[in-house]
Structures are given as structure tokens and as C-alpha cells.
Structure to design on (417 residues):
């Protein structure tokens, strides 16, 4: 008799409503009111008061001096590279375990992304591998604070300073996260955040650069606002030439800023609930043979959880893959499954550009391969609820106790290929 829902058994959680997972994205009355205010004001873009307010509040939240609001968390990375003059002939070191944007930003400015491997516990760039990948062409490094952990900023900054490299912290998952008391995005030369729909703060689309350097802050503003300095309306005369920069329109709108300013107020409490539930899950998961939750970086506290990630050791589970685990867990009705990163170079766009990137280590990225193909996750909206956290534990318990059925399912998947 089959036990798992994936092979015809009974589902553990037939009623998803019982998991008590709040709607995502949030839609509160306060947000509605702020949107209407912006609507009535007519100040919809062009460095409006709503944008300026959010830039200041978010930068302060991350302990940075300046915030430059932009269209998304990809152009923020591109502009950061442009602000440092990175371009054709240069190399940019990125972890292999991230969303495509981290590496594409380098490609967009004509530089070469260089992929390095990650640490097996934090899933963030391995500083030793980063150092080994540096060549005379290397100009910048983009560590990613993956999911709910932080890259080792102490080691990365020390290596970068020694080799005169700029550090851009891809903090698309790290709103509210701190490293040794300093906010993500305030430690490197520039921080980059995304407010795309799935992120822990979202406005549909949106992004922000953070920095402590006034000159870089001004350059970033020029870059996103087609060369106009702050305070000059589009079409108004620019008092300064745009410093030799070919600038873009990468602006975002005041509507998005208003949504985000409201979300920021509720963010610390929501993140704290996620962290509490994550620790609840960790106590169970880390005691199960073969399962391990992503570790926080040594000095990362607090952490905000974008995706709570659970690695299942392919040796213990004898070759079970992510796709089979996702299907098995999903079939039980709990909100645990996919959503995590694949190795960047395995993504379609990079397959097309195989001659335009390189591996820092000719042996490739074995840790990235192991983690990416053998990890499942729970995204932050599901982590807010204790019922949903409990459901994840019960689901893992059931699936792991009946792993042979998952193996049979995986064999069927393979046969169908
Ligand atoms: C989401 C994400 C981005 C890009 O953000 P968009 O706003 O979607 O362009 C960059 N880096 C990482 C690691 C991300 O997860």
C-alpha cells in the first residue's frame, strides 16, 4: 500500500487554508491609502517625495548613508559595475549559486563573469575560491547573501582590499539582515537589493542601490536618471556633465516607493516571526540523518529568510534529486518545494554564451552542483505561519520515512525522459 500522496497515498494536508499562510504580496489598507495619496499628488516619478522618503528610510534600515531607487535588482547591479568603470576586458567574480542577474550584470557591461564555488554550509561564495580566481583582469566581485545567510564579508573585504577590487553585495535576499551589527549592503562598496514580487519586500518590480560613498551615490543617480543630477527635473538643465557616463532610464515610480515605505514598517516583525519558525524547523531537521538546513553565516544576525533551505545529502538518500523531492513534498499539500537557484551556468542564457564566461577553478563548482540539485525550500510567506512550519516538519518526516517511493517516482521521471 502506497503511503506517499505522490504514489497514490493519502495527502497529509488536503486543506491548504489550514496552513494559515498569509497572502503574498501584502495588501493592507495603509498601503492602499498611500497609493491613493501618490495618485492624487500627481508626483508619480522623477525623484518624487515618496521616492526620496523611501530611499532615505531604506538606506538607514540597512545602515547605509545613501539609497538610489531603481527599476529592478538587475539594473542596480549593472549600474554598480558601471559606476566603478567595469567594462569590456574586465572580469567580475560571482558565485555559481545565484540568480542569473548577478552574472548577467557583468555580461551587460561587456565584462566576463567568473564563476566560483560556494561554502557547503552557508551556500555563499567561498572566499578562498574567490581569491584563487583573481587575475590581473579582475575588477570587481559580487558576493551574494544567499537565501537567508550572509557571505563572509570580513574575509571577502580583506581579500578585495588586498587586490584592489570593488565589492558589490548582491543583497536581493538580505533585506534586514546584518553582519556583525552592520546591515547587508552597507559593508561593500555598493549594495544591491531587489523588490521583485517574490522578495521579502516587494512592489511588483523595483530595486535599490545602497552606498556610503557620496561620489558613487551621485554617479548611481546619474546612471539611472539619464544623466540628470539629483534635484534637476528631466528636461531641466544639468549643471554638471555626466562624468563620461552613458546613462540610462532605470527609474522606478513613486507608487512602488509608497508601497515599500509601508511594508518597511511591518518588516521587522514579519522577519522575526520567520526567523522564529525557522529555528523551530531547524531543531527538527538538523537531528534527522541526511538532512541539514542552510547555516547562517558566522556573524549573520539577525537573518531575514527569503527561502528556508534544506539540503538532503545525496549519499544518505542514494541519489534522490531535488525534482523528485519537490514533487513528493508538494503532493502532501505543505508549502515546501522548489524556488531555489540552479547553478547559474546551467541556465539557458549562459548555455548560449558558454564562450563568454569562465570558471575560477577549471574543476568547476562541485559544491554548487551538490547543493543546487539536492536542496528544497520554503519561501518566506509560508514561513510566517507556525502551522505551515509544522506542516513542513511532518511532511519531511513522512517523505523521508518512505523514501523508496520517492526513488520509484524518480525512476519513472527518468524513464519518461
Ligand atoms: C531576484 C534577484 C536579483 C534580481 O532582481 P530583479 O529585481 O528580479 O531584477 C538579483 N540577484 C539575486 C540573487 C536575486 O535573487
Amino acid at each position: 500500500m502506497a503511503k506517499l500522496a505522490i504514489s497514490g497515498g493519502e495527502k497529509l494536508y488536503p486543506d491548504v487554508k489550514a496552513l494559515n499562510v498569509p497572502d503574498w504580496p501584502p495588501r493592507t489598507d495603509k498601503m492602499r491609502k498611500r497609493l491613493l495619496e501618490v495618485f492624487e499628488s500627481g508626483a508619480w516619478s522623477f525623484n518624487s517625495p515618496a521616492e526620496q522618503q523611501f530611499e532615505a528610510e531604506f538606506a538607514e534600515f540597512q545602515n547605509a548613508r545613501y539609497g538610489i531607487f531603481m527599476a529592478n535588482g538587475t539594473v542596480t547591479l549593472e549600474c554598480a559595475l558601471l559606476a566603478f568603470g567595469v567594462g569590456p576586458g574586465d572580469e567580475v567574480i560571482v558565485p555559481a549559486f545565484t540568480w542569473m542577474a548577478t552574472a548577467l550584470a557583468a555580461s551587460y557591461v561587456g565584462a566576463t563573469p567568473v564563476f566560483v564555488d560556494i561554502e557547503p554550509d552557508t551556500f555563499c561564495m567561498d572566499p578562498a575560491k574567490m581569491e584563487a580566481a583573481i587575475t590581473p583582469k579582475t575588477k570587481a566581485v559580487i558576493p551574494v547573501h544567499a537565501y537567508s545567510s550572509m557571505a563572509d564579508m570580513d574575509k571577502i573585504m580583506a581579500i578585495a582590499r588586498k587586490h584592489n577590487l570593488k565589492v558589490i553585495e548582491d543583497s536581493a535576499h538580505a533585506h534586514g539582515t546584518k553582519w556583525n551589527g552592520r546591515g547587508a549592503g552597507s559593508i561593500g562598496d555598493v549594495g544591491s537589493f531587489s523588490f521583485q514580487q517574490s522578495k521579502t519586500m516587494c512592489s511588483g518590480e523595483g530595486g535599490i542601490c545602497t552606498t556610503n560613498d557620496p561620489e558613487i551615490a551621485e554617479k548611481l543617480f546619474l546612471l539611472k536618471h539619464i544623466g540628470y543630477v539629483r534635484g534637476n527635473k528631466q528636461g531641466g538643465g544639468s549643471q554638471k556633465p555626466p562624468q563620461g557616463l552613458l546613462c540610462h532610464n532605470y527609474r522606478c515610480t513613486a507608487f512602488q516607493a509608497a508601497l515599500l515605505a509601508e511594508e518597511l514598517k511591518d518588516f521587522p516583525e514579519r522577519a522575526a516571526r520567520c526567523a522564529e519558525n525557522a529555528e523551530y524547523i531547524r531543531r527538527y531537521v538538523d537531528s534527522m540523518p541526511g538532512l541539514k538546513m542552510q547555516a547562517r553565516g558566522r556573524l549573520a544576525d539577525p537573518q531575514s529568510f527569503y527561502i528556508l533551505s534544506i539540503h538532503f545529502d545525496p549519499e544518505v538518500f542514494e541519489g534522490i534529486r531535488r525534482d523528485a523531492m519537490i514533487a513528493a513534498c508538494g503532493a502532501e499539500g505543505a508549502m515546501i518545494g522548489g524556488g531555489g537557484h540552479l547553478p547559474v551556468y546551467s541556465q539557458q542564457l549562459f548555455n548560449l554564451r558558454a564562450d563568454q564566461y569562465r570558471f575560477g577553478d577549471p574543476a568547476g563548482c562541485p559544491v554548487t552542483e551538490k547543493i543546487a540539485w539536492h536542496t528544497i525550500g520554503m519561501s518566506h510567506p509560508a514561513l510566517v505561519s507556525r502551522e505551515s512550519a509544522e506542516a513542513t516538519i511532518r511532511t519531511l518526516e513522512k517523505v523521508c520515512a518512505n523514501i523508496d517511493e520517492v526513488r520509484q517516482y524518480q525512476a519513472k521521471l527518468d524513464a519518461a525522459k
The chain has 14 helices and 13 strands.
